[in-house]
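Lecture 7 notes: from sequence to structure.
We start with the chain below.
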Amino acid sequence: MRRRHFLTAATGTTAAVVSLLAARPYAVGTSEVIRLRSGLDALTALDAAKGGHEALERAALAGAAEALELQKRAASQRIRQRLFSVAANYTASAAWSAVDDRQSGRAQAHLNRALYLAGMGNDPVAELRVWNSHAMLAAHRGEFSQAVDAGRAAQATAVTRRDPLFASLAHARTAIGHSSVGDRRGALRSLGYAEEALANASTDELRPSWVAFYGPAELMAITSIVRDQIGDAAGAEAASHRALAAIPQLFRRNRALATLRLALAQLHQRDEEQACATAEQVFVLMGGDPLPGRMRRYLGDFYRDLTTLAPDSSIAREWKDRYRSEWSRS
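Predicted structure tokens for the same chain:
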């Protein structure tokens, strides 16, 4: 009887333990981090092809929410930090989509959140990413001094001291800020720092997919912006040609933007006919897809400058018709 009682008790205890373990949620480990990071890569590829849009922003925020939910069950503090880092990058992706879509209010809120999460994840690369987008958002808003400050904040992140590519990106973004406030010397100095740092960057370094856009081609595209803003339209045109010769085909949105910068540089040299022909290629490159808000804004800049420089020309009237048609269709 005692043996039977013991076995019965033992069986009951084992069943209770199994039931308890089954009720406990599993500990989240590396496999979940890897899965979520692969989702970031997919969003980056979508952005490169189509640009920022609301569906991409929503998907990024859903990824961030999932990462934050999983960190509550992280198997270790290290996994918890990595999930915070993933959440920071998803939120930064949402912010960038909003920046590109010209939704500045949502972009600002996402960037503030992403910066907090990057701190929680102890992720200086994510911090730099956020400051890079902060600089772009400030420039779009016309807050050019803040754009310079954000570029400097990007320069101060820890990753710039160990990876020259990130240092180059931070200096290039600062150069745009300087050129926007009319600081020619500061703009050219920052461009020089960006070129020097990029020359020292390793091509074998493992980096997150979001920064794949940056390299010699993108630096040339940024150089075009800076040169045009400091009054060197010929230098801007040359830089745009170099950028377009090197930007990979998969970065369709970036190629369209570089083409538009080329058109602006040509226009600012009073070559209206060539500028309009170049600008029309933007619609071809985007293949009929809706244009991101940032691209719409630059098209608006082109049209404004065209009507200012050649208000009564036939080419300006023809472009106006084309511009309105494509704008309403996009």
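Points to note: The chain is about 80% helix and 0% strand. Residues 138 and 147 are 5 Å apart (CA to CA).
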